[in-house]
Amino acid sequence: MKSTNQDIEQLLLLCKSSNQHAQLEIYNRYNKAMYNTALRIIKDSFKAEDIMQESFLTAFTKLNTLEDTKLFGAWLKRIVVNNSIAHYNKAAKQNEVPLETVVYKVEDDNGIEERSQNTDKVKQIMSVMKTLKPNYSMGLTLHLIEGYDYEEICDIMDISYANCRTLISRAKESLRKKLMQSA
């Protein structure tokens, strides 16, 4: 049986025995989605790629701690999100200024899936989301794009439930206002 036709559980069993072909197959199946997840939080393609690769290394080295192999995708995504948030918080503490705020940069659309790129509305919303305050942008990305609920966002962003609801509400309102201004 070709490795591309193997189900995820068989591939993960092979990965646990350090089978590099199985690891490559897992990587090929998940790398684009995980890169896009990191990019939406980090907003830097090179750092997002680094985070994605580090997350795969973490996942492969800690694969024995995964109890249900059917949840591998969600588990890997959680690792990517946590690594992205950690990097974001570290950069915020160091007061790094993103290059795109200083120098004009031609944006590529790697941050959204190809099938969604066709709609101007999605491009407009993603563009406007980048202009929101960083915590608004992160909150909306985690909630609307990544699909996390308020409790999960509270854990990720290390804020209270009430603050999370307020943050998401204000972020949505800010997004609405900016979209109406650009229309």
Helix-strand topology string:
HHHHHHHHH
Average pLDDT reading: 81
Kindly estimate the percentage of residues that lie in beta strands according to DSSP.
under 5%
Largest sheet: none
Organism: Winogradskyella luteola
Keywords: Sigma factor, Transcription, Transcription regulation
Protein name: RNA polymerase sigma factor
Domain RNA polymerase sigma factor 70 region 4 type: 124-175
Q: Briefly, what is this?
A:
This protein has 183 residues and is mostly helical.
Question: What does it look like?
Answer:
Helix content is 69%, strand content 0%. It has helices at residues 8-16, 20-42, 45-61, 72-93, 99-102, 120-129, 134-145, 150-157, 161-182. Helix 2 crosses helix 3, helix 2 packs across helix 4 and helix 8 packs across helix 9 (161-182). With 183 residues, it is mostly helical. One of its GO terms (biological process) is DNA-templated transcription initiation. Residues 124-175 form the RNA polymerase sigma factor 70 region 4 type domain. InterPro entries: RNA_pol_sigma-70-like, RNA_pol_sigma-70_dom, RNA_pol_sigma70_r2, RNA_pol_sigma70_r4_t2.
